[in-house]
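Q: I'm teaching a short session on how sequence maps to structure, and I want students to see two examples side by side rather than one. Could you give me a first protein with its sequence written out and its structure tokens following it? Keep the formatting plain so it prints cleanly on a handout.
A: Of course. Example one:
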Amino acid sequence: MSSLPTTPSTAHDPIVISEDRVIRYTFRERVIHWLAALSYIYLLLSGLAFYTPYLYWMASILGGGPTARFWHPWFGLVFAVVMFFMDVRRATSMTKLFVGAGLFWLAILLVFLLSDYLSRGWLPILRWL
């Protein structure tokens, strides 16, 4: 066991704490994995409940039909973001550059979208300003 490194040189190398304990994944990696797993389970159950009336009883387990219908797209977004960053973490530097550029483009798009939305006066609080 002494041939294993005490500090990881890459993302795949385990960390040796003592002779009988090896940490293969960091706490962050475990949290990301569990977020992906739990969001996938929720998406699977709510998706099956919406797919057929025979399985709609699963929606009652998830808080009822309207509640499951509200949370389903949000859990889908959480799952997509977690899976995206799980893959980007071990990507090459060129991929990370393109991901950064894509996130910058997304931020610009959201600023333009928000400025258009706020300029139309659809929010009642802005009519008083």
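Q: Perfect. Now a second example for contrast.
A: Example two:
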Amino acid sequence: MTNEEKIDHWISYAEYDKDTTKAMLDSNRYFYVVITAQQVMEKLLKAYYIKIKGKEPPRTHDIVRLSKELNVNFSEEQLNLFDKLFIYYHKQRYPDYIRKYNEEITKDIASDIYKNFDEVYKWLLSQMK
């Protein structure tokens, strides 16, 4: 695969997962809004990594690490979103945290995360055109 094909691949999967993120919000599955939003950001950051560095991104789910390795001047708001999504994503592997976050992530929290996520999503896509 060429780098352009790899970028298209990551973006295509990110677009699919973005639709899933919206579906989770619309169906009141707020915990999964956060989890799928993290997956979308991971895929877009990997596409952006290939675009900027011309090589494969690290095999990691750590979107904070990916954002740092890009050496891009992300805004404080964007970095805060990456931090928040990664914390939720990382802890979702543990049953006690799943119950806690399932109760903690309300419609307002999920909607706010989705709004910020959507802005970063659009910004990242614009950087790859």
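Q: What should students look for in example two?
A: Point them to this: Residues 67 and 98 are 25 Å apart (CA to CA). Also worth mentioning: The chain is about 80% helix and 0% strand.
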